[in-house]
Amino acid sequence: MAMQSTLASCSLRMTDNYGVMDGKEVVKTHTYNKIRTAAADSEIWALARAIDGLTQPTTDAVYAVRVSALTES
Fold it and tell me: Model's pTM, two decimal places?
């Protein structure tokens, strides 16, 4: 039996580090959904840089999260 993978969705996840507050490191993650499934990594990176320019603090990490549906063919 052969298996087929179909890209179902793509999202952008960005992690911001707010530093230490009350003795604990504060890290927040923001997720932006409905990214085109055909978007290239360079396009997702450019989007992340644009969002980073509008927000504080500076982003620590950028993730392109791709979800695939697996089916049997």
Answer: 0.82
